[in-house]
Design goal:
mainly alpha
């Protein structure tokens, strides 16, 4: 691939805007909330920002898939605005982790602390960058994924089947500290689909 083929300009104005919004994270700059007494930053300039995203992370030792469902849904919507909460409401964390992996190819086992993020907005910016990188390198077309996902009647089944076809390993969602977990539930769903 030539340098011009990897240019974000072929993504159109929205792609260029999303790519440029990744620059602070790529340069190691934090977009977290200001310290007490400091002037607040204007986060409203960040595409996809919602009030509360600048809050400090309290779950740094957790893997990504263990984040609260609302934060996973928020992250998915930040990466791909067409997959918003109206489409993902009620999904278990495992399905949300699969959607996020499909959009970014960041394993759900990655610990929040490994992202070197101090706020949820930092996490979302890093995932947006990963999503943009994945769009540049993906040969299977994420736009078609979004269209097919939106149109699917059984969205959970669609996510499961697509993620498995793309190489998602359900063992990534294993939690050794608990007996029954979402991985077992996913395996049972897969068996019932055949």
């Amino acid at each position: 691939m030539s340098h011009s083929e990897l240019s974000p300009t072929h993504l159109g104005p929205a792609g260029v805007s999303a790519f440029l919004s990744c620059l602070p994270a790529l340069m190691g700059m934090s977009v977290s909330a200001p310290a007490a007494g400091a002037k607040p930053k204007d986060f409203s300039m960040i595409p996809g920002y919602v009030l509360g995203m600048e809050h400090r992370i309290t779950t740094a030792g957790w893997p990504i898939f263990k984040l609260p469902k609302t934060r996973l849904s928020e992250c998915i919507e930040f990466v791909e605005p067409m997959i918003d909460v109206t489409l993902t409401a009620g999904f278990p964390s495992a399905i949300l982790a699969m959607i996020l992996w499909t959009l970014t190819h960041v394993k759900p086992t990655l610990k929040v602390s490994e992202l070197r993020a101090s706020s949820y907005l930092d996490i979302y910016m890093r995932f947006r960058c990963a999503g943009e990188r994945h769009k540049l390198s993906a040969s299977h077309g994420l736009e078609s994924y979004v269209k097919e996902f939106s149109a699917a009647e059984d969205k959970e089944r669609f996510v499961l089947m697509h993620a498995l076809r793309m190489g998602f390993d359900p063992a990534w969602l294993t939690n050794a500290k608990k007996g029954k977990n979402e991985t077992e539930e996913i395996h049972l769903r897969l068996l019932s689909m055949n």
